[in-house]
Amino acid sequence: MFPLTSSKASFLLHFSLIASLLLAASAGNFYQDVDQNFGDQRFQILEGGQLLTLSLDKLSGSGFQSKNEYLFGRFDVQLKLIPGNSAGTVTTFYLSSQGSAHDEIDFEFLGNSSGQPYTIHTNVYAQGKGGREQQFRLWFDPTTSFHTYSIVWNPQRIIFLVDNIPIRVFNNQESNGVPYPKNQAMRVYCSLWNADDWATQGGRVKTDWTLAPFTVSYRNFNANGCVKIPGSSACGSTNSLSNDQAWQTQGLDANGRNRIRWVQHKYMIYNYCNDASRFPQGFPSECKGSRF
Ligand SMILES: *[C@@H]1O[C@H](CO)[C@@H](O)[C@H](O)[C@H]1NC(C)=O
């Protein structure tokens, strides 16, 4: 260590004060927003609450959940995935309620061998029933830098976004008899775990434990939603840091429809609504409506 000159020191002090104010205004803090739910020391909050890492070794993965439960909202997190050989691992970011007839909205990142692409797996469960998978490739390498993954959940629709580009929309089609998640508050969950029995190429490629621990990084977690008041069915104040309530009615505009067409044309690798072998009696009703 060497002493800083006083002008350098005061510059650094000012710089870090300004930087921390900007961060406080633009994103939550993991200490305030989440609780660990498994994995002991494999869960770490760093940089004063701005960065969170999860790791996975042969004994266990790790995970966390939001302190609050939400009934609708917009949920964003930035993620940097496991580089190199991540085969067999699954990184998640999802919303879920509790109980047997639960609702769930999933983003899952299925690892792969070195140099092979990740798969983004999405699903929607309503009242305990899922089976609505769509899978995508990405148009960038998700392991070299942070990218933003978002879920918009409002009474009309669910939108999955990657770097603010919509990749999937699940519309509320209750009028056609399709259950829609709208009565059960959900928490945000994130985790890293081993699923080498199925995750990579149908389970043929196993996790290489000589590379453990595997680590993923999360930052800029932002839950802008309607916070459920414990013990009541009502939902209280929305996030006080932000008065951006656009999520409440967010849909796709012309630009959004162009972008989702581009993603679904070039990067969608699986859609349950195209998988006739799974539905010999006919496709589920939600597959028949308009796509976006
Ligand atoms: C891994 O990469 C191979 C080759 O591109 C691909 O066929 C496979 O679907 C990928 N698996 C996952 C889980 O992404």
Overview of this protein structure:
The chain is mostly beta strands and 292 residues long. The protein has a single domain (28-287), classed as Jelly Rolls, CATH 2.60.120. The chain is built from 3 helices and 16 strands. Strands 1-4-13-6-7-8-9-16 form an 8-stranded antiparallel sheet. Strands 2, 3, 5, 10, 11, 12, 14 and 15 form an 8-stranded antiparallel sheet that branches. The longest helix has 21 residues, at 6-26. The relative contact order is 0.20. Residues 110, 112, 116-119, 199-201 line the site of 2-acetamido-2-deoxy-beta-D-glucopyranose. It is an enzyme of class 2 (transferase). InterPro entries: Beta-glucanase-like, Beta-glucanase/XTH, Beta_glucanase, ConA-like_dom_sf, GH16_AS, XET_C, XTH. It is found in: Secreted, Cell wall; Secreted, Extracellular space, Apoplast.
Keywords:
292 residues, mainly beta, Jelly Rolls, eight-stranded antiparallel beta sheet, globular, disordered N terminus, binds 2-acetamido-2-deoxy-beta-D-glucopyranose
Instruction: Examine the secondary-structure arrangement and name the CATH architecture.
Output: Sandwich
- Please count the beta strands (DSSP E, at least 2 residues each): 16
Portion in strands: 35-45%
Radius of gyration: 20 Å
| Mean residue pLDDT | 89
Order of helices and strands: HHEEEEEEEEEEEEEEEHE
List bound small molecules: 2-acetamido-2-deoxy-beta-D-glucopyranose
- Counting structural domains, the number is 1
Molecular shape: globular
Taking the alpha carbons of the first and last residues, their distance comes to: 58 Å
Sheet with most strands: 8 strands, antiparallel
Class computed from helices, strands and strand pairing: mainly beta
Low-confidence stretches: 1-26
Spatial strand sequence of the major β-sheet: 1-4-13-6-7-8-9-16
CATH class wording = Mainly Beta
